[in-house]
């Protein structure tokens, strides 16, 4: 158990620092507090750390040790915690911790779990390309309805066809075209269709599940006359996008299934 572990750690360290044994025998400091200073105590600073262990609270002592301990980066860990919950373990900088605590104060939340939940939901609502596409579609439908109410006579099919008409740049030779960012109506259309998920299908005909670092890929490359149209654009994760471009010229035109 934890107590036995503390005794064992102190026993090993006391061979190097005999003053630890004396401190325990004096009864002035607990085993658990001395255990905290084991990583940083040595013959030169033993008096300082034993005095800190005697005078500081457990939390304060841990903070003091952390200040002088070398930082070892650890992986973020997510484990099952029962009843469908997950336990997240990660290291954060003092600046980020201060930001989270300030956000908790501003939003008047009870704990950091609520802070993370609110921040994540609000950021996702603003930044998620799929949600942006859905909002853009809703705005377009509202605008179309307003035009119909005013008697403009422009139908939904007229609007769609006008969106899909090639731009002036698409009528020019490929070599004369400068690569430009895709129009947002195309980006939104791709995100609505693909739901922000990679559309690469592997040998087992199973679709890649990645939604991380996704990019929009031209099925028919622009260098070969491919156009910026919904049917020629597809969502791919970074790895599959890279894979397709690396193998394109050796295998001919890439083939992916949507």
Overview of the structural elements:
- 52% of the residues lie in helices and 7% in strands.
- The chain is mainly alpha-helical and 258 residues long.
- The chain has three domains: 2-68, no CATH class; 90-127, no CATH class; 131-251, no CATH class.
- The strands form two sheets. Strands 1-2 form a two-stranded antiparallel sheet.
- The chain is elongated, with a radius of gyration of 30 Å.
- The protein starts with a helix and ends in a 7-residue tail after the last helix.
- The relative contact order is 0.05.
- The model is unreliable at 155-177 and 253-258 (pLDDT under 50).
Oligomer: single chain
The biggest beta sheet reads:
2 strands, antiparallel
Secondary-structure element series: HHHHHEEHHHHHEEH
Kindly give the count of domains.
Answer: 3
User: In terms of per-residue confidence, which ranges show pLDDT below 50 for 5 or more consecutive residues?
Assistant: 155-177, 253-258
What is the beta-strand fraction? 5-15%
Coarse morphology: elongated
How many DSSP-defined strands? 4
Q: What integer is the average pLDDT?
A: 82
Counting helices, strands and paired strands, the structural category is mainly alpha
Radius of gyration: 30 Å
DSSP helical segment count: 11
Helix content: 40-55%
């Amino acid at each position: 158990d934890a107590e036995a572990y503390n005794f064992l750690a102190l026993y090993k360290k006391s061979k190097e620092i005999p003053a630890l044994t004396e401190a325990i025998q004096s009864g002035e400091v607990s085993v658990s507090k001395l255990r905290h200073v084991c990583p940083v105590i040595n013959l030169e600073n033993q008096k300082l750390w034993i005095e800190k262990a005697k005078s500081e609270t457990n939390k304060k002592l841990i903070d003091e040790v952390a200040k002088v301990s070398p930082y070892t980066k650890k992986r973020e860990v997510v484990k099952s915690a029962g009843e469908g919950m997950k336990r997240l373990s990660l290291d954060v900088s003092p600046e980020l911790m201060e930001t989270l605590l300030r956000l908790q104060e501003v939003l008047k939340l009870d704990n950091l779990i609520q802070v993370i939940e609110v921040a994540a939901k609000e950021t996702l609502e603003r930044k998620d390309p799929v949600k942006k596409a859905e909002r853009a579609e809703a705005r377009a439908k509202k605008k179309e309805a307003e035009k119909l109410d005013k008697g403009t006579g422009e139908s939904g099919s007229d609007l769609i066809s006008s969106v899909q008409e090639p731009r002036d740049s698409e009528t020019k030779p490929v070599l004369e075209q400068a690569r430009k960012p895709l129009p947002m109506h195309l980006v939104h259309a791709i995100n609505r269709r693909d739901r922000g998920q990679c559309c690469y299908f592997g040998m087992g005909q199973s679709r890649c599940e990645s939604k991380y670092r996704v990019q929009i890929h031209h099925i028919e490359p622009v260098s070969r006359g491919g156009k910026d149209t919904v049917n020629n654009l597809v969502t791919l994760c970074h790895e599959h996008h890279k894979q397709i471009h690396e193998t394109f010229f050796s295998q001919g035109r890439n083939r992916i299934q949507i």
